Amino acid sequence: MNNTTKQITNDFIENRDIIKKTLKFESQYIIPVAANEFCAAGVKADAEKLSECKKIIKKNSGFASYLKGNILPVFAAKLSVADDIEAQFNKVTEMYAILKEHYKKSEYLALFATFLAEKTTVEKAENIAERGRTLYNMMKKEHPFLTSNEDSIMSGFMAFSEKDDKQLIDETEKCYDLLRKKFSDKNAVQTVSHILAIADGTAEEKVERVCRMYDMFKDAGRKFGKHYELSSLAAISVIDADEKELVDTVIEIDGILDGQKGYGAFSIDKKTRLMHASMLTADLYDDPENTQAAVSASALAAIAAQEAAMCAAIAASAAANSANYS
Fold this sequence. Notes:
Layout: H1 5-22, H2 31-41, H3 47-60, H4 72-80, H5 85-100, H6 107-119, H7 122-142, H8 151-158, H9 165-179, H10 186-198, H11 203-219, H12 229-237, H13 243-258, H14 270-285, H15 297-325
Helix pairs in contact: 1-2, 1-3, 1-13, 1-14, 2-4, 2-14, 3-4, 5-6, 5-7, 6-8, 7-8, 7-9, 8-10, 9-10, 9-11, 10-12, 11-13, 12-14, 12-15, 13-14, 14-15
């Protein structure tokens, strides 16, 4: 671990509040994901830099670009911790342009472009995008009605794996079949299967660990949601640490969040709060010095936990907007 539960949770709340004051009118579901960017980087949110980054994104992104849509707070946070804001923005837009040649445009693809810019070079991005699209097509063949835009993120990260394409898809399918015995949401199970496929170990071992940890949370009175939230559980399950230690850490952070403004009865619900606690737990175990593999266990956990929270936030924002216009 590279931090303490109390410190990272307090930092998270402080960062969230700075973002709320600086980037007004943004989704309450997406702001916590942006706040996590600063926790992962180990720095405090800077209001002035955030404002500057928002202006850069708004001014330089194309008309109706997904880069300035729901993901804007997360994108701005990522830019504000970069050494060179302008250079990083340009790198993300280059990555997004490459990805759009292989995938359909979406908020999920824009989000993946910001991750990709942190993990590789523009020169290598073409091969990753091409392989990612091949994996996406293989996913689509196995599950034509389940596979959609949000799967572009995990297909992209699967492209970093040293496992061959067939091995990745075969492991995904084994995990999927095993997980379906316990969880009914096929879409959530598919995403969890993608995360587990990248990680080391047999399908049986990885699925059993997820199921054990799910039951441990349930026994402790912290029942994980069975939809988008499951991806966060899968994320922490791939961390190379004792299961009870991981569960206890999430529960401790969840307990601290429970007493914070914004996590009450009429705000973010318990299942989302637990997902945020998992996201922060993944940060604690991430090793930023390990640059050898974009999908090392710790890096995969941090990426997957944040991706899960962001996908849930995008879905929640879409649902809220739909309700407002109905």
